Every structure is written in structure tokens, then in C-alpha cells.
């Protein structure tokens, strides 16, 4: 099992450009999450999907959209990137009824 | 909503010493408290957790204690080794029972173990 995979690992964008961060899990998990990690700020939830077909906003959703494409895949889209979105983005997944979240390796995004 | 405070932000110890990281939470309904370890360039990984019906839990060199009355919980690492160097996150939440599970994370503690 690959666990949680994220692509790309690194990305540099110019202000106003758009991009989609991809996340996939092969553990048959029901819930998936997108977090951003900034220095001294911990992990902040952007969006989550409790199950296939549902998505909900987290603590910091502004400027982002998500798609739960199927049970395996959960993508995060930046429609018009801003320098404030420079961060490391982590995707996580969780099996229904269990508390442990499994995190991917992260995507380091820089917006110039 | 839940608020989790974590201290210290940086902790530097000598190999073999003990390390303690402390967290407080605000929502008395929270009943599940995990600790994650994040090594450089990787995603966080669960290392130990505790539920509100337990006061202490141990796993080899790591232990977690919980004081529900005071709303604080701590991670204890004994006989630290250089490979313990990482960022540690605490979190608090209402445990999953099939529905949504949204933990609130602390801001992290960077532990440095000097050989």
C-alpha cells in the first residue's frame, strides 16, 4: 500500500495563476482532509470530506475549492493564487469510526 | 469551538534527558487526544493517543498524561535519542463514532536532541 500520495511535491506559481493539488489514498478510507501548515501556526483545516459525495469548509477555506472525485481522490484547487497561500499543504485520510489520521508527504507551494 | 494551546514552541535537550511537551484545551466535550510526530520533509504520524476515560498511557519511551479537570495533557519522552528530533503536535477532538471527526491541532513543538 502506498498510503496517502500527493502531487506535486513542489510548485511555484505567480500571483493570479491557478492550480490543482492532487491527493489519493489506497486504504479504503472514508474521510479525507486538506490542511495547510505555516511556521508557528500548526495544522489548519481548509476543507474536509466526511464521505464520498460530501465536502465541508474548515477553518481557513477562503481562496480554495475542493472536489471529492471518488472514494480514493480528493483534490484542492486554487483558482487565483495569492502570496498568502504560500504554505505546505497536507492531505490526510481516516477510516470511518477510527480516530487516526494518515497524512501524505505534503506539497510545498510558493506563490510569487 | 475548540482551542488548543501547546508549549513550548522549541525544546532543546541533551541525549538521554527527558522531554515534556504540554497542551491545554478549552472544550470540555473533547474526549480524544492524539500526539503526532513530524520528521523533516514528511507528513505527521500518530505516535500515541489517549481517551478521556484514561489518565495515563505508555508505549516504551513515550507516555501521555491527561488531567480532565484542568483540561491539560502532556507528552513525556524519556531517554531521548537524536532520532526523536522532530516537530510534535498535540490535538483535541470529540472522538469519531462514524460521523465527522475534526481535530484541533496545537501549533507544534520543535524538539531538538543534541548528541
Can you characterise this structure?
The complex is a heterodimer of chains A (112) and B (115). Helices cover 0% and strands 52% of the residues of chain A. Chain A has strands spanning 4-7, 10-13, 19-25, 31-38, 42-49, 56-57, 64-68, 74-78, 87-94, 102-103, 107-111. In chain A, the strands form 2 sheets. In chain A, strands 2, 4, 5, 6, 9, 10 and 11 form a 7-stranded mixed β-sheet that branches. A 4-stranded antiparallel β-sheet of chain A has the order 1-3-8-7, with no helix packed on it. Chain A is globular, with a radius of gyration of 13 Å. Helix content of chain B is 0%, strand content 53%. In chain B, the strands form 2 sheets. In chain B, strands 2, 4, 5, 9, 10 and 11 form a 6-stranded mixed β-sheet that branches. Chain B has a 5-stranded antiparallel β-sheet with strand order 1-3-8-7-6, with no helix packed on it. The mean pLDDT of chain B is 94. Chain A binds chain B through residues 4, 31, 40-45, 48, 50, 56, 58, 90, 92, 94, 96-101, 103-106, and chain B through 6, 9, 32, 34, 36, 41-46, 49, 89, 93, 95-103, 105-108.
How do the SSEs of chain A run, as a string of H and E? Answer: EEEEEEEEEEE
Helix content of chain B: under 10%
Calculate the terminal CA-CA distance of chain A, rounded to whole Å.
Answer: 36 Å
Strand content of chain A: over 45%
Counting helices, strands and paired strands, the structural category of chain A is: mainly beta
Amino acid at each position: 500500500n502506498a498510503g496517502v500520495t500527493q502531487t506535486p511535491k513542489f510548485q511555484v506559481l505567480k500571483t493570479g495563476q491557478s492550480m490543482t493539488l492532487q491527493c489519493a489514498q489506497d486504504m479504503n478510507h472514508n474521510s479525507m482532509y486538506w490542511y495547510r501548515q505555516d511556521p508557528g501556526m500548526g495544522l489548519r483545516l481548509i476543507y474536509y470530506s466526511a464521505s464520498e459525495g460530501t465536502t465541508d469548509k474548515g477553518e481557513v477555506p477562503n481562496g480554495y475549492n475542493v472536489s471529492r472525485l471518488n472514494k480514493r481522490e480528493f483534490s484542492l484547487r486554487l483558482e487565483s493564487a495569492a502570496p498568502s497561500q504560500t504554505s505546505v499543504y497536507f492531505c490526510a485520510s481516516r477510516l470511518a469510526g477510527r480516530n487516526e489520521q494518515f497524512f501524505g508527504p505534503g506539497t510545498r507551494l510558493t506563490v510569487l | 469551538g475548540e482551542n488548543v494551546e501547546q508549549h513550548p514552541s522549541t525544546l532543546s535537550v541533551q541525549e538521554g534527558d527527558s522531554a515534556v511537551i504540554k497542551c491545554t484545551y478549552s472544550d470540555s466535550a473533547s474526549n480524544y487526544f492524539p500526539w503526532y510526530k513530524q520528521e523533516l520533509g514528511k507528513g505527521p504520524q500518530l505516535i500515541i493517543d489517549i481517551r478521556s476515560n484514561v489518565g495515563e498511557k505508555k508505549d516504551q519511551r513515550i507516555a501521555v498524561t491527561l488531567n480532565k479537570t484542568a483540561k491539560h495533557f502532556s507528552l513525556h519522552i524519556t531517554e531521548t535519542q537524536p532520532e526523536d528530533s522532530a516537530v510534535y503536535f498535540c490535538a483535541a477532538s470529540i472522538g469519531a463514532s462514524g460521523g465527522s471527526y475534526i481535530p484541533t491541532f496545537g501549533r507544534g513543538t520543535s524538539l531538538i536532541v543534541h548528541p
